[in-house]
Amino acid sequence: MPSEFELIARYFTHAPSRADVRLGVGDDAAVLGVPPGQELVVTTDTLVAGVHFPERTPPEAVGHKVLAVNLSDLAAMGADPAWVTLAITLPSADEHWLADFSRGFAALARLHGVDLVGGDTTRGPLSITVQAMGLVPAGQALRRSGAGPGDLLYVSGTLGDAGLALAALNGEVLLGGADAEDCLRRLDRPTPRMALGRALRGLASAAIDVSDGLLADLGHMLQASGAGALIELERLPLSAPVRRRVREARDWTLPLASGDDYELLFSVPASRRDALTEVLRGLDVEVTCIGRIEAAGLRLVEAGGRDVAPARLGYDHFAGGPR
Ligand code: ADP
Ligand code: MG
User: What ligand is nearest to the CA atom of residue 120?
Assistant: First the structure.
């Protein structure tokens, strides 16, 4: 049975790739150099097995996902990711599991130039916490507050794919072949929208990452901004299987209220629309205008401008408006 120190040395100690890591794994704490003129942006998120990911999730995907969900928060702040710490609680020292987990984690870290600089390794029910640290030019971090009436509302990627995969895993819907694979990839291996977040600095009036479902996270943005919004349902960016599901079920719950999308939702003043088009050129992510910010309330409209009562769509729990 390998000791805690052997596990750390084997799976969590990599030569730092960044010059700003003065001291990484191996001492009592890491020492990191924050460049003058930059601010440190810090976030943390925990994944608990069976709660935040199905027990069946391949360990390599768990390693990817626990980092991806934290990077997604940095993206929503417009930060450049720099360093992460990893606190992992394991039921046993399963080396196959650890090798796969650390491979998934390290691959995404490398992709975004992030160094693992420390952490903690303990025994207990499987739970993984990452703290991610990023840098942003002073005063330029994106916030949830700042959306104003007339601003256009955008979302990246597509909505509801991870929710559809989860519904399929739970036996609630039938999903086959390539659709099942595509949706499962979205659930297991979310793509943090780092380049988009960075491009939105100085452009977006507000931003948030969509982790708990579009309406829930929009609600957070609206509350922080003291504003309302109008969503045009037909504009929601949907993959083919989600679109089919919405049509068959006559229910928008999947793209509006299922979690784990990890897309960016953001508002841009209408006067900056062309500037947005300009910065999006060259980014490999689709961005869709889904509505606009209003003074108050939340309106969902179908094609032709018909207002849709949330209750009719099967989400009474949103009837009270954004929370
Ligand atoms: P301490 O007793 O001072 O907390 P630890 O034995 O917990 O030290 O950790 C030793 C070193 O290994 C520290 O630098 C710590 O940050 C690092 N470390 C421990 N677990 C992990 C992990 N899962 N990932 C990355 N670094 C880790
Ligand atoms: Mg420790």
Answer: 1
